[in-house]
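[step 3/7] inverse_fold.run input=structure_tokens len=399
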């Protein structure tokens, strides 16, 4: 008789777990709280689904789950999806996308694979409890009870609650004795002093962003920084946001707006611009080097006058301007909410699960995906973890 498995959650990790468990001979029932599975998959990669990355370095992952390194080792999302008929392409930065350029293709491939392997998918089933029944497990969803030999929990974290992932299982799991690393928003905008960014709203600039705690450098990322009316955004900022959530107002973000130039090269460049534009208003000194509003802000913060002639800029102002260009600091006021976050930092701690992601407290229950305390950088790393952990849990639960 086939081993029965209940998968709770029809997102990326849940679908991977369900397909894998069925492939390994289990009779699989998937319970999804929304009217259809995979809603969050459709939103990833701005609707294109950045489903993985060619860079497999474990430094892109964070949390308390050292088991993940072995689970991720050797996993190839291109090869895995190819078996379901989904072809992919890889961009210059190593990010992997479906050949079609649409996230719907990824979801369809998983739905087709699940159906072909006999997975029973039941939607609008919100799980509210789990309890042992003999040597099996009973999953409670409203007025219905489902019983199986094994349960795989893939209900996600707290990010993107409109996709059904609001962390609703975590209070129940805490009561069952699980250690939960406090969930925090990650891969999201970082809030700062609105007075510093409001005038820059809508602008983008290439920069090296560094998270500082006092004088300690915690992490640096390079890329495009975007300014909103109260926050810094962009991929490089997103990759620092888990630190902002962790350290709060003790953190500062520093932007190096000319990371490819040394300080003396910047000083020479400013002298050259001053010679060329001395008869123009000071606010035009940096025009062309940065967006005009950013150039004006830098000059004002250095003590200069945007309306007076550039030739009147003092040597002291020019020195401050050079320093500011390489170290423009923004106080951290926290992060955007879970509704603006792509992923959750935190979740079930690694000490609670085995190498195969089975519960150490309740054998017969597995965890995978964002419910566990592991989160990755931008660039397909979180979906890579979803697929790989779902496969690991599905394979183990089926046996």
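[step 3/7] decode complete -> sequence:
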């Amino acid at each position: 008789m086939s081993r029965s498995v209940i998968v709770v959650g029809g997102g990326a990790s849940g679908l991977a777990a369900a397909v894998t468990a069925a492939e390994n001979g289990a009779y699989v029932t998937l319970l999804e709280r929304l009217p259809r599975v995979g809603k969050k998959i459709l939103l990833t990669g701005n609707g294109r689904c950045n489903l993985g990355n060619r860079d497999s370095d474990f430094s892109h992952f964070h949390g308390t789950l050292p088991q993940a390194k072995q689970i991720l080792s050797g996993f190839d999302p291109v090869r895995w999806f190819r078996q379901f008929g989904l072809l992919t392409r890889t961009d210059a930065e190593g990010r992997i996308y479906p050949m079609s350029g649409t996230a719907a293709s990824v979801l369809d491939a998983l739905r087709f694979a699940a159906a072909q392997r006999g997975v029973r998918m039941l939607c609008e089933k919100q799980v509210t409890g789990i309890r042992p029944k003999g040597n099996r497990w009973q999953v409670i969803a409203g007025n219905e009870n489902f019983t199986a030999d094994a349960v795989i929990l893939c209900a996600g974290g707290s990010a993107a609650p409109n996709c059904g992932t609001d962390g609703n299982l975590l209070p129940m799991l805490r009561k069952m004795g699980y250690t939960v690393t406090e969930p925090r928003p990650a891969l999201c905008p970082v809030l700062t002093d609105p007075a510093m960014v409001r005038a820059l709203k809508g602008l983008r600039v290439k920069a090296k962003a560094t998270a500082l705690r006092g004088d300690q450098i915690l992490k640096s990322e390079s890329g495009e920084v975007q300014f909103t009316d109260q926050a810094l955004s962009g991929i490089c900022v997103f990759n620092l946001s888990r630190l902002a959530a962790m350290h709060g107002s003790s953190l500062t973000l520093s932007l190096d707006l000319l990371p490819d130039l040394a300080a003396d090269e910047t000083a020479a460049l400013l002298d050259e611009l001053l010679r060329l534009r001395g008869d123009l208003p000071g606010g035009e000194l940096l025009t062309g080097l940065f967006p005009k509003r950013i150039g004006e802000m830098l000059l004002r913060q250095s003590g200069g006058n945007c309306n007076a002639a550039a030739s009147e800029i003092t040597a002291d102002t020019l020195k401050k301007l050079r320093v500011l260009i390489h170290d423009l600091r923004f106080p951290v006021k926290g992060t955007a909410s879970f509704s603006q976050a792509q992923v959750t930092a935190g979740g079930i701690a690694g000490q609670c699960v085995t190498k195969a992601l089975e519960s150490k407290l309740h054998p017969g229950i597995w965890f995978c995906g964002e419910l566990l305390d592991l989160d990755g950088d931008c660039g397909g790393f979180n979906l890579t973890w979803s697929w790989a952990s779902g496969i690991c849990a599905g394979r183990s639960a089926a046996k």
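[step 4/7] annotate
The first strand starts at residue 4 and ends at 8.
Residues 381-398 form the longest helix (18 residues).
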